[in-house]
Amino acid sequence: MLKTLRCALDCRAFLGEGPTWDPQGQALWWCDIYGPTLERWVPESGDRRSWTLPEPVGSFALCESGDQAVVALADGFHVLNLGSGTLTPIVDPDPERPGTRFNDGRCDRQGRFLAGTMSIGLKRSNAALYRLDAELDTTRLFGDATVANGLAFSPDGATMYWADSPAQTIWAFEYDAARGVPGERRVLRSFGPGDGYPDGAAVDAEGCYWTAMFAGGRVLRLHPQTGEILREIAIPVRRPTMPAFGGADLRTLYVTSAREHASAAELAHHPQSGSIFAIEVDVPGLVEPRFKG
């Protein structure tokens, strides 16, 4: 049974993204891409903390080793020390590819960090998906994308989901978990005019794929084989960006959102754009893997 939708945190980020639940601290982490900030919020106490970064932050993952996070900034991968705020560069995996920045990313079930880029201005299909291993080696997995989004993994890690937002298409890839390499792909679902654009995603304990429909004002739960819409949840803003499961039982679906590209009229009608919404759901999510580096 679906319970009442609520605005969990009226933060009004410009481009809120990447919600990640930390079961150890019972905290929700996310980023405001153009803040540019990494954010942490403990729902029970209301405690909040923010880390300001020097460049747009597309995605991040908490690390297994110490009080650290790996962050994908405009100029590549970095390690952020959460205690001191010190930022240590790792690598820019493709310095010869101008006009892109990092966007959506997360760890696979083995703790490798995968992150994709996007073409700034959406003018060229010059974005790609990269993998950062625990040894801090990087691999370009594939390219010919415009806006990398929707990255998620099945519960057994054998399927990787990924979307190119302007193409309005979500793909499911066979995933070689031992090597961290995607293989053959199939279309999970495509969308059309007026549907919105598949943005960030999450997978629940039953393996169903949840996608936020940017400019579509809703979150969808899709069947992992057929792509059939199993549930549709209206969000009271036009630009939801990504869902994530949280709470003590992982049955709270948190949804970030954005104010980016919104007109004055839209913001007047949806003043909580950029805030975080929460929905109690029956099927729980999965614990998000931490980066093993």
Provide a compact summary of the structure.
With 293 residues, this protein is mainly β. The protein contains one helix and 24 strands.
Q: Element order, helices and strands? A: EEEEEEEEEEEEEEEEEEEEEEEHE
What Rg do the Cα atoms give?
A: 17 Å
Largest sheet entry: 4 strands, antiparallel
Q: Give the N-to-C terminal Cα separation.
A: 39 Å
Taking strands numbered 1, 2, ... along the chain, how are they ordered across the largest sheet? 1-24-23-22
Number of strands: 24
Contiguous uncertain segments of 5+ residues: none
- Indicate the mean pLDDT: 96
Per CATH, which architecture?
6 Propeller
Fourth CATH level, the homologous superfamily: TolB, C-terminal domain
Domains (count): 1
CATH level-1 class: Mainly Beta
Oligomer: single chain
**Strand percentage:** over 45%
Tally the helices. Answer: 1
